[in-house]
Amino acid sequence: MARNKLPIHTTLSSDAIRILERYEKEIGAKNLVLEKALLSLDSSRFKGKFDAGNIERTIKRISTGVKGLDDTLEGGIPKGFLVIVTGPPGTGKTTFCMQAMLEGARNQEKCLFFSFEERVEQLVQHFMRFGCDIGEYIDDGYLDIFGMSKLTSEEMMEIIQFYNPERVAFDSMNVLTNGDEFRSSGSWRSLHRLLKNKKITSFFITEKKHGIEVKEFDNFDFLGDGIFFLDSVPTNEIDNTPMPVIAVQKMRATKIDSSLQPFKFTDNGIARYKAVTTSKYPRISIPPKIEEDDIKLESS
Ligand SMILES: Nc1ncnc2c1ncn2[C@@H]1O[C@H](COP(=O)(O)OP(=O)(O)OP(=O)(O)O)[C@@H](O)[C@H]1O
Ligand SMILES: [Mg+2]
């Protein structure tokens, strides 16, 4: 579309744009005075819509389902965000996303889980290990799982349009495409736009060849509104036993605690340890100098 066909101001409402387009069609020219007048009308509407003193309350946050993790995110993930759940193999990415879907289903939100490398049966078994009856959520229509999915982006868009979910997980995006192509291809951008327009909170699982100690970012990380990095690190300098950790590396519109949060796989899924904050055990350290005796499981 030629630049001169567009209004100068991008924050104009669709009503204002319609008025401008009608004017331009009839007169055959732009009218900047009219556009400015419409803009000032619009901005008074914006002011009415957003209470600047209460902007925090206009951001609805949803729970990750991981006990204790929401506290490091001002209460949760802003609704409609696209978050990246990333890390090396076997670090809990699938488990984390399943838990986020179950949290949604528990709150009667419609949730979809697309898996590209695991069968439905295997996924259901994995879900069932969280100690809840997911059959009930599936029967009641709050959870749908697509296993060994060979769906195209267009087919997934159709499914999303049909189900109108509030949460969606894609496990893993690397099976579909890489971050560079996702950001540049028309069909993937359409999927991204659909998720954003419908304000669906989306979980993109992506894979990392290196652990958290290596600063390795791909184009999915730039595209995501938030990044959860899962990894496992030695428990401390003396004890080399691997300890699972999660770090919130980014969450737009949110004050985050980006330190490594040790967690445990429990019978109810992932639970974060409440790390003690003392000078003896600083929270930001790789490997974290945290002894198991000095940390308490949030779920207990
Ligand atoms: N209840 C549990 N107790 C202990 N460990 C568990 C439990 N549930 C899962 N795990 C561990 O979590 C690991 C992987 O979990 P998950 O499948 O979520 O990881 P992933 O990051 O998705 O892996 P991949 O990259 O292979 O897809 C498993 O190797 C398993 O050892
Ligand atoms: Mg997985």
Helix-strand layout with pairing:
Blueprint: H1 14-27, H2 32-49, H3 55-58, E1 61-62, E2 77-78, E3 82-87, H4 93-106, E4 111-115, H5 120-128, H6 134-139, E5 143-146, H7 153-163, E6 167-171, H8 173-176, H9 179-184, H10 186-197, E7 201-207, H11 219-223, E8 226-234, E9 242-251, E10 261-266, E11 269-274, E12 296-297
Parallel strand pairs: 3-7, 3-8, 4-5, 4-6, 6-7
Antiparallel strand pairs: 1-2, 8-9, 9-10, 10-11, 11-12
Bound molecules: adenosine-5'-triphosphate (ATP) and magnesium ion (MG).
Magnesium ion binds next to helix 4.
Structure description:
The structure is a single chain. The chain has 300 residues and is of the alpha/beta class. The chain folds into 2 domains: 42 residues, no CATH class; 235 residues, Rossmann fold. The strands form 2 sheets. A 10-stranded mixed β-sheet has the order 5-4-6-7-3-8-9-10-11-12. A hairpin with a 2-residue loop joins strand 10 and strand 11. Helix 7 runs parallel beside helix 10. The radius of gyration is 23 Å and the shape is globular. About 8% of the residues have low confidence.
